[in-house]
């Protein structure tokens, strides 16, 4: 049997593409989600991938589901921290609730998911942790003080853990997607999409979730053992423009 891989937010968008790609590469994949049962059920049936509902902002829920997965399938050797949300507002209008929701899922979620699997990875001498951050954590974005802060935090978290895991066979890397064609983008008005987004992406299009997924599959593989603490940009050149 292949290694066990857990993908948070693995039932829609980028995470669904990651879960499918890892399954295609031979991993035993479990996909997590927060509340959209219909999407999760459809994803699970279409791809024959088990799904579980828990909130990554809860340490207790993460610990309980990871323990159950390890009991069912064996040790989690690949963890993809992909679950993420936006609660955009200009800072002068941002509420504490918007700040805390984004921090809870996008930053605390990484601690909550990684801490329960870390000791086992250290003991076995192997682990792959791949964190999905964002270009907006690298460069900041208007209306996203919460999201940019959390996503920048993901990068710092990955680098510190990469150092701690290096002698234990654990690699920790971050992927920073640019704009990817998912439900998260569906909330953006067409005029903003054309004038403020596509106009600034040198390749002239959104990325596809599968383009991030292929990167994850490589980072999870034995071939990527020398890559750790990296921040990989996948943004169609946007960061250069
Ligand atoms: P989607 O909105 O399409 O899907 C989000 C997934 O995360 C869903 O499966 C959702 O579950 C799950 N989720 C959300 N909150 C929680 C939570 N608290 N606990 C557990 N699961 C949760 O997102 P994308 O695919 O667009 O984004 C995936 C990641 O990539 C995110 O971290 C995002 O910030 C990042 N990213 C996305 C970009 C883009 O252009 N799309 C650009 C750069 C980064 P449910 O279906 O139940 O709601």
From TrEMBL:
<dbReference type="InterPro" id="IPR020904">
    <property type="entry name" value="Sc_DH/Rdtase_CS"/>
</dbReference>
<dbReference type="GO" id="GO:0018454">
    <property type="term" value="F:acetoacetyl-CoA reductase activity"/>
</dbReference>
<dbReference type="Pfam" id="PF13561">
    <property type="entry name" value="adh_short_C2"/>
</dbReference>
<keyword id="KW-0560">Oxidoreductase</keyword>
<feature type="domain" description="Ketoreductase">
    <location>
        <begin position="3"/>
        <end position="178"/>
    </location>
</feature>
<comment type="similarity">
    <text>Belongs to the short-chain dehydrogenases/reductases (SDR) family.</text>
</comment>
<dbReference type="InterPro" id="IPR002347">
    <property type="entry name" value="SDR_fam"/>
</dbReference>
<dbReference type="InterPro" id="IPR057326">
    <property type="entry name" value="KR_dom"/>
</dbReference>
<dbReference type="GO" id="GO:0005737">
    <property type="term" value="C:cytoplasm"/>
</dbReference>
<dbReference type="GO" id="GO:0042619">
    <property type="term" value="P:poly-hydroxybutyrate biosynthetic process"/>
</dbReference>
<dbReference type="InterPro" id="IPR050259">
    <property type="entry name" value="SDR"/>
</dbReference>
<dbReference type="InterPro" id="IPR036291">
    <property type="entry name" value="NAD(P)-bd_dom_sf"/>
</dbReference>
<protein>
    <submittedName>
        <fullName>Beta-ketoacyl-ACP reductase</fullName>
    </submittedName>
</protein>
<dbReference type="GO" id="GO:0032787">
    <property type="term" value="P:monocarboxylic acid metabolic process"/>
</dbReference>
<dbReference type="InterPro" id="IPR011283">
    <property type="entry name" value="Acetoacetyl-CoA_reductase"/>
</dbReference>
């Amino acid at each position: 049997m292949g290694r066990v891989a857990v993908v948070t937010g693995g039932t829609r968008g980028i995470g669904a593409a990651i879960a499918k790609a890892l399954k295609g590469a031979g991993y035993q994949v479990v996909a997590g989600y927060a509340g959209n049962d219909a999407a999760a059920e459809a994803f699970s049936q279409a791809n024959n991938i088990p799904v579980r509902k828990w909130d990554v902002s809860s340490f207790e829920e993460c610990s309980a589901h990871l323990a159950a997965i390890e009991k069912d399938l064996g040790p989690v050797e690949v963890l993809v921290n992909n679950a993420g949300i936006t609660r955009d507002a200009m800072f002068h209008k941002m509420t504490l609730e918007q700040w805390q929701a984004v921090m809870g899922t996008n930053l605390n979620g990484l601690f909550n998911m990684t801490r329960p699997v870390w000791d086992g990875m250290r003991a076995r001498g192997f682990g792959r942790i791949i964190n999905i951050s964002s270009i907006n954590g690298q460069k900041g974005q208007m209306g996203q003080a919460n999201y940019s802060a959390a996503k920048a935090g993901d990068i710092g978290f990955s680098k510190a853990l990469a150092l701690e895991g290096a002698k234990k066979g654990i690699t920790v890397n971050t992927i920073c997607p640019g704009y990817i064609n998912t439900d998260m983008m569906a909330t953006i008005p067409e005029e903003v999409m054309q004038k403020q987004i596509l106009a600034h992406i040198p390749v002239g299009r959104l990325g596809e979730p599968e383009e991030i997924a292929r990167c994850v599959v490589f980072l999870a593989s034995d071939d990527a053992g020398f890559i750790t603490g990296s921040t990989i940009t996948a943004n169609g050149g946007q960061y250069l423009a």
